[in-house]
Predict the 3D structure of the following.
Amino acid sequence: MIDLYYWTTPNGHKITIFLEEVGLPYKIIPVNIGAGEQFQPEFLQISPNNRIPAIVDHEPATGGTPISVFESGAILLYLAEKTGKLIPEDLRLRVEVLQWLFWQMAGLGPMAGQNHHFSNYAPEKIDYAINRYVNETGRLYAVLDKRLADREFVAGDYSIADIAAYPWIVPYERQSQKLEDFPNLKRWFETIKARPATIRAYEKAEAFKNQTLDIEKSRELLFNQSAKTIQR
């Protein structure tokens, strides 16, 4: 059994999609990041960076005590290796998957995240910041679109590289992007969206979407952390 510490963010969706794809039993433990639940001491023991998702695997492949993992890319890689699914055994194909997994972790996720922040959450609209991250998000969409010009999925067969990228494309409208501008990406996106595991994963998220939050409190918790947040 996998305990999944989760909230309805793109990084959270990565893990539910994977778990639904492989059929690994799991239990969702919601961590409402808008209410500050990511700062609870019990959660920080698992995820010291106070971010979701995180997992605890109560049945590691090698046996012994449970293993906890934080960071969505590390979780995807851990679970793929545990199950032997959605990651190739062949060295060259495996390298392809890992390159694109890290591309998402280092590029698409952070840039789209800054796009979301300055376009939708920042208390003041800064044109330079908005344009910077909208344009960089578009550039990354174009990189992915070009990659998909001659292949169905990012790195051969469907893999954790696709699972990592897909949830960050879902809010494309909030990122000021149009899928029609990226036809190969759009075809890939619609293919993954229609997968039964993807549908089930997003259905799981519906249970948490209607929780009411204090917007100003959420803004303070999510966007105004500093070294003192960790040191106190």
Q: What stands out?
A: Residues 2-85+210-231 form a domain with the Glutaredoxin fold (CATH 3.40.30.10).
